[in-house]
């Protein structure tokens, strides 16, 4: 059912799942291990106490998610919805060449660095 997510997890991605702190949803993503733990750190910050820092991290993730439909992140009401959404993004990600994947990872790094949480 989640073939594309499984493929990425088996290659070198880490599945990140956190309960949304300032809402009822779930934040879920696939963090590229060779890129450090950038997405994990952003999701962790977005779900931690500390209003302004958490909101900056959440906005950074959400903005990148809107800009790049292949970005390996979803924010949904339930885990099932989140996994389904992430599976669709993972399918798109798997069709990208390495250059375009790296462009998105660079945007993720930039978003992380702009949040002042690094």
Distance between termini?
A: 35 Å
| Strand order within the widest beta sheet | 1-2-3
Mean pLDDT: 90
Helical segment count: 5
How can the largest sheet be summarized? 3 strands, antiparallel
Which residues sit in consecutive blocks of at least 5 with pLDDT less than 50? none
Category by helix and strand content: alpha+beta
The total count of strands amounts to: 3
Order of helices and strands: HEEHHEHH
Give the helix proportion (percent range).
55-70%
Q: What's the overall geometry? A: globular
Strand content: 15-25%
**Computed CA radius of gyration, to the nearest angstrom:** 13 Å
Could you please describe the fold and organization of this structure?
By secondary structure, the protein is α+β, with helices and mostly antiparallel strands. Helix content is 58%, strand content 15%. The chain has a three-stranded antiparallel beta sheet, sandwiched between helices. The radius of gyration is 13 Å and the shape is globular.
